[in-house]
Amino acid sequence: MKGQSRKKGRTKHNKPQRIEESLQPKHSIKHKKKTHQNHVNHSSNPPESSSSSSSSSSSSSSFLDKVRARLAGGHFRMINEKLYTCTGKEALDYFKEDAELFNMYHTGYQEQMSHWPEQPVNRIIKWLKGRRSSLIVADFGCGDARLAKIVKNKVFSFDLVSNNPSVPLDSSSVDVAVFCLSLMGTNYAIYLQEAYRVLKPRFDPNNAERIWTSLRELSVRWDLPQN
C-alpha cells in the first residue's frame, strides 16, 4: 500500500509538471513565431522610396514650368504686336492701365530669347568690350539692363517709364546709343531723333556719314526738327 501510495503520489506530482512543461514551451514558441511573422509582414511592405516621390514631384514641376512658359510666350506675342502698332504714348498708357503687363512682357521676352542661337545684346556687349571702357553709353529700351550689368562702361539705361519722350541727358553727352530690339512703335523716328540729340558729334569715320545721312532722311520724312 505504501508503495502504491508513493507511486500514486509520484503520478499525481508528475502529471502537472509534465503538463506545465508541455504547455509552457509551446505557448512561448507560438508567441515568438507570431512576433517573427509580424516583423516579416511589416518589413515585406516597405514605404515608397523617396527617389520615386521626388521623381514624380520633379516631373510635375517640369510640366507646370512648360505651361507657364507657353502662357508667357502667348502674352509676350500679344503685347509685342500692340507695341509695334501704337505710339509711345499709347504704349505707356497701355502699361499704366495694368502695371503687371510690363513685367509680363519682359518675362515673355526672356523666354523667347532663351531659344535664340544668339542674343543680340551679347553682340553689342562684345562690340563694347573691344573698345575703350571710357565710352559713355545710352541704352534705349534697356529691359532688365543686362548691358549695364556686364560692361565696364558707364551706361544710362532707359525704358518706357515717362510721358516725356526726352531722356534726362544733355545734348552731345554720350558716345554710343543702343536700341536692342527696342526700336518699335509707329513713331520710332522720335526715338532716333532723341538718340541723335544726346550723341556726341563724332563717330567712327568709316560709317559716321552714312549714319548721319540716314538720321537726317528720317527726320525729313517724319517732319522732325533737325539739330
TrEMBL record:
Q: Which molecular function GO terms apply here?
A: methyltransferase activity
Which InterPro entries does the UniProt record give?
RRP8, RRP8_N, SAM-dependent_MTases_sf
Which superkingdom heads the taxonomic lineage of this protein's source? Eukaryota
The EC class name is transferase
UniProt-listed Gene3D superfamilies = Ribosomal RNA-processing protein 8, N-terminal domain, Vaccinia Virus protein VP39
What ranges does the record list as Low complexity composition bias? Answer: 49-61
Database matches in Pfam families: Methyltransf_8 (PF05148)
Q: Tell me the protein family, please.
A: Belongs to the methyltransferase superfamily. RRP8 family.
What the protein does comes down to:
Probable methyltransferase required to silence rDNA.
What is the protein named?
A: Ribosomal RNA-processing protein 8
State the species of origin. Hibiscus syriacus
